[in-house]
């Protein structure tokens, strides 16, 4: 949608400049004073409008490329993580083993996207107690049989917080450490340690 808007803006700017220049030329022709200066001015204005449109278009393409590369990186990391998780499940292993081996009984899940919900579902029937979830959209998870809190409020004590948003892990840990002293681990570390 934005690409179409940018293209339409460029076309409109070029057509507007061309129409204005045509009007100026017609006025000069009617007055009989067409000169080299008018022709040079026309070329300069047209070139400036074209250059501005090109700069804007390149900035737009650069922004979109950055957004797409972030999404590709995110989905690739999720793909490999889910693949490793499925290999464990096919071998009859669950993520509950990690928490049991480290004596973590009460955990919190930070991030209830696809990975977080899958983790919650896997741990539901085990000895591991998912005490609560942490998510920016806490109100949207009322359907879960789980307490979900916003990251802005105070956290209840838990043995460990599992961060499921692996692509922004460092940034999230930095924010979580401001609110809690409990141990924090990424879902990626849990899966790859088994």
Could you please describe the fold and organization of this structure?
This protein is an alpha/beta fold. Helix content is 60%, strand content 11%. It folds into two domains: 86 residues; 100 residues, NAD(P)-binding Rossmann-like Domain (Rossmann fold), CATH 3.40.50. The protein is built from six helices and five strands; from the N terminus they run αααβαβββαβα. The chain has a five-stranded parallel sheet, sandwiched between helices. Helix 1 packs antiparallel against helix 2. The chain starts with a helix and ends with a helix. The model has no long low-confidence stretch (mean pLDDT 86).
Q: N- to C-terminal separation?
A: 45 Å
What characterizes the major β-sheet? 5 strands, parallel
Strand content: 5-15%
Helix content: 55-70%
Q: Please tally the helical runs, counting DSSP H or I stretches of 4 or more residues.
A: 6
Mean pLDDT: 86
Question: Widest sheet: strand order?
Answer: 3-2-1-4-5
Low-confidence stretches: none
Domain count: 2
Order of helices and strands: HHHEHEEEHEH
CATH architecture of the largest domain: 3-Layer(aba) Sandwich
């Amino acid at each position: 949608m934005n690409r179409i808007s940018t293209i339409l803006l460029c076309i409109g700017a070029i057509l507007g400049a061309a129409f204005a220049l045509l009007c100026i030329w017609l006025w000069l022709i009617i007055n009989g004073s067409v000169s080299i200066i008018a022709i040079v001015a026309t070329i300069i204005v047209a070139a400036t409008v074209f250059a501005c449109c090109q700069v804007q278009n390149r900035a737009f393409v650069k922004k979109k490329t950055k957004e797409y590369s972030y999404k590709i990186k995110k989905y690739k990391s999720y793909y490999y993580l889910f693949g490793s998780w499925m290999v464990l499940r096919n071998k009859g292993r669950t993520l509950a083993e990690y928490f049991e081996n480290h004596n973590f009984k009460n955990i919190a899940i930070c991030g209830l996207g696809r990975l977080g919900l899958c983790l919650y579902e896997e741990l539901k029937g085990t000895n591991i107690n998912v005490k609560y979830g942490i998510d920016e959209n806490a109100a949207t998870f009322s359907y879960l049989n789980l307490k979900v809190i916003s990251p802005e409020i105070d956290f209840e004590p838990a043995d460990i917080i599992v961060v499921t948003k692996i692509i922004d892990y460092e940034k999230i840990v930095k924010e979580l450490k401001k609110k809690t002293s409990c141990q924090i681990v990424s879902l990626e570390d849990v899966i790859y340690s088994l």
